[in-house]
Design goal:
149 residues, alpha+beta, five-stranded antiparallel β-sheet, 33% helix, globular, disordered C terminus
Length: 149
């Protein structure tokens, strides 16, 4: 995955207060991760929430995490996490409760994610817009192109 940097200052975004260099005149960039998941069926709700609660608790306690929030928008369960850097997010991503949730994900939900480095954290309106515009889709079966033979 490439390391993307997003300049939100010129995009009409209201900058959040969380930065890795809080108190500095020139704040250090942070890594922002946005997810949005939709249950495949209501039957999966209990399993989804079992994983979601544990993953959120892990994120909030993870080294390098500056902020972790969740919000439902339009029937989609969104998370916003802010990290000191991409490496801290990656360490969280592949361990503990979150790793277990990722293994269960294809069976219970569809969704997409978007991560980027920035000097300011977007507000929830911009988070939702960025997720729609730039999210990478997971959990949906890719179709093979039809044979031309």
């Amino acid at each position: 995955m490439e390391n993307r940097r997003l300049d939100l200052d010129g995009a009409g975004c209201d900058a959040g207060e969380v930065t890795a260099g809080a108190g500095d005149d020139d704040p250090a960039p942070v890594y922002v991760s946005i997810t949005g998941l939709r249950l495949k069926t209501a039957f999966h709700a209990a399993w989804f929430w079992w994983h979601a609660i544990r993953s959120m608790m892990q994120a909030q306690a993870a080294p390098g995490n500056l902020r972790a929030e969740a919000r439902a928008i339009g029937g989609v369960q969104h998370t916003l996490t802010v990290w000191t850097n991409r490496a801290a997010m990656r360490r969280f991503l592949i361990t503990g409760a979150h790793a277990k949730a990722m293994r269960a994900f294809p069976r219970i939900a569809t969704g997409s994610t978007f991560g980027f480095e920035t000097d300011s954290v977007p507000d929830w309106g911009d988070i939702h817009r960025l997720w729609h515009e730039r999210g990478i889709v997971y959990g949906e079966r890719q179709t093979e192109p039809e044979s031309t033979n």
